Amino acid sequence: MPEPSTETRAVSNGTGVSSNAGNGQRNALNDFVHPMGVEAYRKTAKDLIDWICDYYARVESLPVRSEAEPGYLPPMLPTEAPDAPESADAVLSDIQSKIMPGLTHWQSPNFFAYFPANSSFPAMLGDMLSGALSVMGFLWSGSPAATELETVVLDWLAKLLNLPACFLAFGPDMKLGKGGGIIQGTASETVLVALLAAQARAMASRPAEDRQYLVCYSSDQAHSSIKKACMVAGTPHCRLIPARPELDYALDPDDLTAAIDADLAAGLIPFYLVGTIGTTSSCAVDPIAKLGAIARRHDMWFHIDAAFAGVTAMLPEMQHYFQGLELADSFNTNAHKWLLTNFDCSCMWVQDADPLKAALSLTPAFLRAKGNAYDYKDWQIPLGRRFRSLKLFFMLRMYGKQKLQEYLRHHIALGDLVADLVRHDSRFEIVTPPRFALTCFCLKAQTGKETAALVDAVNRSGKAFMITTELSGRCVARFAIGGAQTQERHIRAAWQLISQLADKVLAETEGARP
Ligand SMILES: *Cc1c(COP(=O)(O)O)cnc(C)c1O
C-alpha cells in the first residue's frame, strides 16, 4: 500500500478546499480528508460569529418583512449541488446576496406579527454546543447527560413556573416519580403526543372497536394543531365548540358540558380535552379549573396549551390565570416563543408518563431503562433527539429568575402602552382586553376593510410587521410584543407609523365612497 502523501495527511491547507480534490488515483482505503479541517473551522466559525454579531447590531434597520416574490430563489442558485468542494467564503457570499433578501427578520425589534420566536445569546451558546456535540439522546445510555440534564432543567423550569408538584420528575428524595418534563419540538407535536396518550389511556379498558366513538374537545379559538392531531391520529370526532365573545373568547364550561352530554347520549366516548391559556388569535384564557373538573368527571385527558403565555406563570400577578393546573394531565409552554430560547424548545410536563409510554414505546417492558433515569424516546414520536436542554441550561443560568421576571414584565408593560395608545386615539377601538403583551384592535367600523388595508400598509413600509386575525367575523389587527430586542422607542415609532398610515387609509376609503 502506498504511503499517504503529506498532502493527504494535512487536515487543511487553509483555504478550506482539499488539495486532493480531483485526484482520481487515490485508493479509497486511504485516510479520508475533509474539505474543512479543524483549523479552517476554528477561523471560519469565529468569522461567522462576527457576522452574527454585526447582524444583531443592524437587524433593527432592515425591512422586517421580506418582500421577495414566491420562486425568487431557485433562478439564483445552480440546479445541482457542486461536484467539487467550494470554499466557505463562496457559501457565505451567497448567504449575503441571495438568502438575506428572502428573510423576514423575526429578531427585529420591530417584529410584532404572530408570536415572537425569541433568541438569546446564552441560548445560542447552548445551541451551538448541542450542534457541535451532536449526541443522540433517545436512550439514557445514548448519552446519559443529555437525558438527565433535560429532566433536571425541566424540573427547574416547572418550579420557576410555579407548576404543581405533581408535574415534577423528582420527589423530595431525588427519586423519579411517575411524571415530569420533556422537551418536544413544537406545541403542535405536544398536542398530538398528549392526544395519543389520552387515546392509550381511554382504550386500555375498552374493546378496540370503541375507537370509532372517541371524541376530542376544545374551543374554536384553540390552536389548529388540535384538528391536525385528530387528522393524524385518526380521531373520528373533533368538537371545536364556539368560544363566547362575551367571555372574551373563552370556552364556556356550560357549552362544553352540553356538548359532552349530547355525545354521551349518542353513545360516544369523550376522551380528550384541550384548554388554552393564551389563544393564538387574541390570548383568550379558558377557565382552567372548571374545565379540569369536567375532564375529571368524565375521565378525559386534560391538556393545557399555554404555548405563548405559559411562561408568565412565573409572575405572581399572573397566577389567577393558572388556577387548577393540578387538574391537568399535561401542560405545555414554548420556551422558543417568549422565553429567550431559540427554536425548537417546547416544554411539556405530564403527571403520569405511563399512558405516553403505552402509546409511544415499542420497547418490551423487560428492556426498559431501570433505575433513576428516563428513556425519552418513549415520550415522543421520533426516535432521534437533539441535546436541546443545553439551550435552557445556559439561558436559565445566565438570566436567572429575577431577570426573566423583569423581562416578561417589561413586555407586558409595553403591551399596556400599546393598549393606552389605542385607547387614546378616537379612530381606533380595542377589540378584546389586552393580555400577555398582545393587543387586538381595529379601525372603527367603516367598510370593515380599513384595518386590513392599514396592516398591509404598515407591513409594506418595512418598518414594522404585524398580522390580522378574525374575531366574530371582523378583521382585527394583532400587535404582539415579546421580541427580545424590543424597547419602548420601537413601540412609539411603530404607533406613529400606524397613526400616519391610518390617516391615509381613512382618507382613501372616504374618497372611494360614492
Ligand atoms: C404558537 C401556538 C401553538 C403552536 O406552536 P408550535 O410550537 O409552533 O407548534 C399552539 N398553541 C398556541 C396557543 C400557540 O400560540
Describe it for me?
It is a single chain. With 514 residues, the protein is of the alpha/beta class. The protein has three domains: 76 residues, dopa decarboxylase, N-terminal domain; 253 residues, Aspartate Aminotransferase, domain 2 (3-Layer(aba) Sandwich); 113 residues, Alpha-Beta Complex (Aspartate Aminotransferase, domain 1). Helix content is 39%, strand content 13%. The protein contains 14 helices and eleven strands. Strand 10 and strand 11 form a beta hairpin. Helix 4 runs antiparallel to helix 12, helix 5 runs parallel beside helix 12 and helix 12 packs across helix 14. It is globular. The protein binds pyridoxal-5'-phosphate. The site of pyridoxal-5'-phosphate (PLP) has 15 residues, from helix 6.
What key phrases describe this protein's structure?
alpha/beta, Aspartate Aminotransferase, domain 2, Aspartate Aminotransferase, domain 1, seven-stranded mixed β-sheet, disordered N terminus, binds pyridoxal-5'-phosphate
Question: Which homologous superfamily in CATH is the superfamily of the largest domain?
Answer: Type I PLP-dependent aspartate aminotransferase-like (Major domain)
Strand content: 5-15%
The name of the CATH topology of the largest domain is Aspartate Aminotransferase, domain 2
Q: In terms of structural class, how would the helical and strand content be classed?
A: alpha/beta
CATH architecture designation of the largest domain? 3-Layer(aba) Sandwich
Mean pLDDT: 93
- Outline, from the CA principal axes? globular
**Helix-strand sequence:** HHHHHEHEHEHEHEEHEHHEEHEEH
Highest CATH level, the class of the largest domain: Alpha Beta
Would you identify the regions where 5 or more consecutive residues have pLDDT less than 50?
Answer: 1-16
* Bound molecule types: pyridoxal-5'-phosphate
